[in-house]
Specification:
single chain, Alpha-D-Glucose-1,6-Bisphosphate, Chain A, domain 3, eight-stranded mixed β-sheet, five-stranded mixed β-sheet, alpha/beta, TATA-Binding Protein, globular, 36% helix
Length: 432
Amino acid sequence: MKKTISGIRGIFGEDLNLPDVIEFCNNFSTLIKSQKCVIGKDTRPSGSMIKNTATAALMQNGVDIFNLETAPTPVIFREARNYGAGLIISSSHNPIEWNGMKFIIEGRGINESELPQIIEHQETLKSKSGIEHDVSSSYIDDAEKIIGTVQNKPKVVVDIGGGAAKGFASDLLKRIGCNVVVINEELEESSRGPDPTADNLSDLILASDKKDIGFAFDLDGDRLVVVRNGKKQIPDVTLGLGVAKSLELGYKNFVLSIDTSISIEKFIKEKGGSVQRSKVGEANVIDLMLKTNAQAGGEGSSGGFILPEFNYCREGILTSGLIASMLGDSKFNEVLNYMESYHQIREKTKVDSEYHDRVIQEASTQFSNDFSETNNLDGIKGTIDEDSWVLIRKSNTEDIIRVSAESNDEEKCKKIVRDTLNLVKNCYDKVR
C-alpha cells in the first residue's frame, strides 16, 4: 500500500481492504471542519464498494455527504470548494486492480503535515450521523466561462479510456464549439490501459487521422495526453500548450516542477512571465503556488497543467478545452514546434531504498565537479548548459532512483542519461 500526500493506493483485496477504508475515513473526518464532504469515484469495479464504505464511515462521524457518484478528479476538486472537503475514490493511472482515496481539504489536496493525521490512528468524536445528498456539478458551465467559444469548429477525437471523464470531457468540448468523436467510452470495451502516458494510443492515433487533434485521459480524468499529426506528444507538450494559452489569457506568474522542460520556462520568460521551481509532485507544485500566489503552472512529467483560480489539481479536462481553443491559430503550431525542439528522457534504475540518500550524496559530489550549477531542491540537478540539464531523484514509494534529462540535441540527451545511469550504479556499488 502507498500512503503519500497524493493519496492512499493499493491492490484492492490484498493490501487495501474495507477495514483500511473505514480507518482512514475515520481519521479524515477529524480534518473536516465544515462537517461536509463531496465524494465521487472513477470507473474501477471496486469503486462503488469503497465509496459506499467511505460514505458510511464519514457519516458515522457526523459528516454530511454530497454524492457525485462517478466523476473525474477535477470535477470533485472543483465541487470540494463549495463543501469544504472532498474524497475521491481512485488510484489515478494505476492498473485496474488497484484503488485508493485522494483527500481534499479547502479545495486542495492534503499536505505533509496533514498526512499523518490520516494514516495514523486518531480518536474520533462521535456525534449525530451525517446525511447523504445526491448532487450534480456546475463544472462544465464554470470551465466554459474560462475557455470561451472556440472558432472554426475544430474536429477533435476524445479517448476516454473507459474512465470517469465520460460525459464531462466530450460535453465540454462540444459546448465550446468542437466537433467531437469519442472512443473507448466503456471500461470493459476499452482497447488500452488506465494510463495514457504509458500506452501507445494506437487507436487514438488512427481515429484522429485527418482530424485536428486527439485527447486521451487517464481513468480519473486529471491526466491528459495530446495526439497531433499522427504523433503522441510527450506530457511536457500538454503542459506547455496549457501554459501558452494561460499566457494568452494574461497570467504571468508560474510555478513549474523542477523536472519540467526548460522549453516551457524559456517560453514563459520570452512572453514576459516569471517562473519558480518546486519539488516534483502535484502537491508540491500546488503548495508553492499557494505560498507565492502563482497564477498557473504544473508538472511536466505528468502533463499536469494547474490553474489555481479554477482548481488546485491537475486539470486534464479544462486543459483539453484550453488547447482546443488555440486550434486554427498560427500560434498553436508555433508553440508546438517550440516545445518539440527539446527532447526529454525519463528513466529509472533499481536501488534499495535504504541506500537512496547515500547514493544521491555520492552523485552530488560528482555533479559539483562536473557542472557549474547544481540544485538540491529535490534530489540533485545539474545544469549542463542553457539548453541541457539532468536530475537524479529518489522514489518515495519504490526501490528505484529516477534519472531525468533534457537537451535540444536528442543524441546529447541520450548520452547524458546513459552517463548518469552509470554514475548512479557506480555510486550504488560504492556505498553498499
